[in-house]
Known about the structure:
By secondary structure, this protein is an alpha+beta fold. Among the domains are: 237-341, Flavocytochrome C3, Chain A, domain 1; 422-525, Methane Monooxygenase Hydroxylase, Chain G, domain 1 (Up-down Bundle). 34% of the residues lie in helices and 19% in strands. It has 15 helices and 21 strands. The chain has helices at 14-23, 41-44, 59-69, 76-95, 132-146, 216-224, 254-257, 283-297, 311-317, 319-326, 384-402, 422-425, 428-442, 449-465, 474-495; strands at 2-10, 29-33, 49-50, 102-104, 110-112, 114-115, 125-126, 150-154, 156-166, 169-179, 185-195, 228-229, 234-241, 249-250, 261-263, 302-305, 337-346, 349-351, 363-365, 370-371, 520-521. The strands form five sheets. Strands 1, 2, 8, 9, 10, 11 and 19 form a seven-stranded mixed β-sheet that branches. A five-stranded antiparallel β-sheet has the order 14-13-17-16-15. A four-stranded mixed β-sheet has the order 20-18-12-21, with helices on one face. A hairpin with a 2-residue loop joins strand 9 and strand 10 (169-179). Helix 1 (14-23) packs parallel to helix 5 and helix 14 packs antiparallel against helix 15. It starts with a strand and ends in an 8-residue tail after the last strand.
Amino acid sequence: MSIEVDYLVIGSGLAGLTFALTAAPHGSVAVLTKRTRSDANSSLAQGGIAGVLSEDDSFELHKQDTLVAGAGICHEDAVDILVHEGPERIKDLMGLGANFNTVTANDGATVLALGREGGHSRNRIVHTADYTGWECERTLLEAVKADKAIQVYEHYFVLQLLTFEHNGRRYCAGALALNTESGQVETVKARYTLLATGGCGQVYEHTTNPVVATGDGVALAWNAGVPVANMEFIQFHPTTLYHPNDRAFLITEALRGEGGILRTADGDAFMSRYHHLKELAPRDIVARAIESEMKRTEQPCVYLDATHISNEILHDHFPTVMVRCAAVGIDITRDPIPIAPAQHYQCGGVNTDLDGATCIGGLFAAGEVACTGVHGANRLASNSLLEAMVFGYRAARKSTELHNSLPLGNPDKSTAIGSVDASLASRLGSIRTVIREEMQRSVGIVRTTSELERVASCLRMWRHEISNDAMLSADAMETKNIALLASLIVSSALRRHESRGLHYTLDYPTKLDAWKHDTMLIPSAESGL
């Protein structure tokens, strides 16, 4: 079976859906998602969307907050675009029916309730209680469902991008995808393709990401010859629910914005020893402080104390947190919440320009999968949903401006597809488990060169074991992608001989001007990868 459209979107989060809705008036759109359409990192975002929407705020303040968090390697032109175009994308969502929290102003008018999170100098976070991502995703999915030009294909796992060469340049012609329900491999032909697959949380043992976050988009781009940048900058959310019998669950930063206090088991409020902003310091600083206190006290967690916050605020603003904590016996109105850091966000990714375009003609990337230059060495809280919409929109606008100017061509012969060897299939689960454990242990918040080199050596061994290209299985391909993403993260970390933002190494503990640049990995030059 073959699907032919003008625009192909791989992924159904905010970036992909924004692209689809923007491109739909100009042609047919296919959205491929490897599970259901709502299985995306975007749906899990609790905190909100940052945007300059009040008189006491400014584009320059939002820009400076982003640059400070990014620790010196944000691209200023990309940040300018983010902060200036962001409010319009938020208004687009509101126009589609997104229900954000509001308050009554002094003059009686109803206005957006703007919160504040770590690293922000003003209240500028638009939110829907503590399930903002879900509300945004719901809004866009309803709009997509109503648009006859857009078709969503669920349970399609993309195996590889289809490319061809024309006049010395490579172009994308769509993708090869496995329909995991029918078991059939299908060709999806398109003139323009967007990678919007989210992040790579499943590379780590503890993550706030859903099970679909296996780094597929970065792997697809890398295997097609697209450079990646800044993969060493993996953000760990400082506060996720710690419970021996439950997966990591994000405790939104907005709870600290409302006055939540980080304490050790004996009640010591420790953040003043690490940063003058205390609980509202940038995430990398808060995460390292928590890990330091856990090691100092030899405890598996610290505590987020919200018991002094009014019950009304807790019930109105944090219903999801309250319900999830109650499910494991924690009443946050009376009990401090046990928390520990967990992998949360991939700040680097597929290298793009300011319109989301890659070096391959017709291939774009937006959202967490992309490295637009916005986040630098550390993402500012609540800039992620904003970036997904801003650059998803720009990528669609650029592709529609190109009209039919890109050449059409026959894709190169695709990789042979076959069944998974039975003995290897039985090993896939254990390989994934050991990779995730090693990445959590040695390529997390604090790193050393010797541990990075050891993990790099192990990854070469594991990747060799699963190097067979003929593996017709989503599980097998996800395992290959996880191993590749781990290798890219480790390789990038080994190249940066300093500590900056989310990359902290005991061997190079200071930040150096000589390293004030992106870490770029180019497939053709990386024979070891």
